[in-house]
Write a structure and sequence with these properties.
By secondary structure, this protein is an alpha+beta fold. The protein is 17% helix and 30% strand. It is built from 4 helices and 16 strands.
Length: 241
C-alpha cells in the first residue's frame, strides 16, 4: 500500500524517523530559545498551561512569522515531499504551532477535528505533527479515530480547555471506529487530515511531549471568512509546481 493509499484509508500517516537526531536536536534548541523569549512572541500567540506552578507554556502559534528557522523548516524537503504527494503542488503553508504538553502538568486535548477551527474550503488541509520527544502512552501521545475523516464536518461545542477551545458535541464521536494511539520516536512525523478526529490524554509522566505542527493546504483551498484568520491571508508556497 502506498503512503497516499494508507492516508486515504486511515486519515493519518505515520512517518518514523523523518528527521535525523541532529535535525531534531536543532528543533529542540529552537523551541528552548522560543520559551526563553528569543525571539519574543506576542501575547496573543501563546497559551499558558492552566494551573501550572511555576507557569509553563502550553501552546505557541504562528512561530514562522517571527523566527526564520521555523519558516525554513516548513519547507524541509523530507516533509514537503510527503505532504505534496497527498495534497498536490504548489503546496502552501497555513500555520505553525507548538503543543508542548509539559512533564507532569500537560493537559488533555479533547476529541475534535481541526477544520472547525478554520475558515477554509474545500477540506484539503493536513497537519504535520513532528515529535521533538519520544512520544508514548505515558506522556500523552496523539490518538486518532481511524477513517473518521470520511464523516465530514461533525458538530462541535465549547470545550473549556485553554488552547483547544472546541470538542466534539454530545454523541458526535462515532463508537464504531477504532481508536489508534500513535507512539513514535523523536524525529518522526505524523500527518493527519483536517477532518480526522483526534485527542490526547494528560501528561502525568516525568517526560515532556513537545510537538511541532505545520498546517499545509492544497492549491484548491480558499478562504471562506477572512475575519476568522488571525495570521492574515499570506500563505507562502513551500513546495512549488
Amino acid at each position: 500500500m502506498t503512503p497516499h493509499e494508507s492516508f486515504e484509508r486511515d486519515g493519518f500517516l505515520v512517518c518514523e524517523g523523518m528527521f535525523s537526531p541532529a535535525e531534531t536536536d536543532r528543533m529542540r534548541d529552537a523551541v528552548e530559545c522560543l520559551l526563553a523569549g528569543d525571539p519574543p512572541l506576542p501575547p496573543h500567540e501563546v497559551v499558558p498551561e492552566p494551573g501550572a506552578d511555576p507557569p509553563r507554556l502550553r501552546n505557541a502559534f504562528r512561530m514562522h512569522l517571527y523566527a526564520p528557522y521555523f519558516r525554513d523548516l516548513a519547507a524541509h524537503p523530507a516533509l514537503t515531499t510527503v505532504v505534496a504527494g497527498l495534497l498536490g503542488r504548489p503546496l502552501r503553508l497555513y500555520s505553525s504551532q507548538l503543543f508542548l504538553k509539559p512533564a507532569r502538568v500537560g493537559s488533555e486535548v479533547p476529541w475534535h477535528q481541526d477544520l472547525p477551527y478554520w475558515a477554509f474550503a474545500p477540506a484539503e488541509l493536513v497537519s504535520a505533527w513532528i515529535a521533538i520527544d519520544d512520544t508514548h502512552l505515558g506522556n500523552g501521545c496523539v490518538r486518532f479515530l481511524r477513517g473518521s475523516h470520511r464523516l465530514g464536518v461533525l458538530p462541535h461545542e465549547a470545550s473549556g480547555v485553554a488552547g483547544n477551545s472546541l470538542r466534539l458535541a454530545g454523541e458526535a464521536c462515532p463508537a464504531d471506529l477504532a481508536e489508534v494511539a500513535i507512539e513514535v520516536p523523536r524525529g518522526s512525523c505524523v500527518i493527519h487530515h483536517c477532518l480526522t478526529v483526534h485527542r490526547s490524554e494528560p501528561n502525568a509522566s516525568p517526560h515532556p511531549r513537545r510537538g511541532l505542527i505545520y498546517v499545509y493546504m492544497s492549491p484548491a483551498v480558499r478562504v471562506t471568512d477572512a475575519s476568522r484568520l488571525r495570521g492574515g491571508t499570506d500563505f507562502p508556497v513551500v513546495a512549488g509546481a
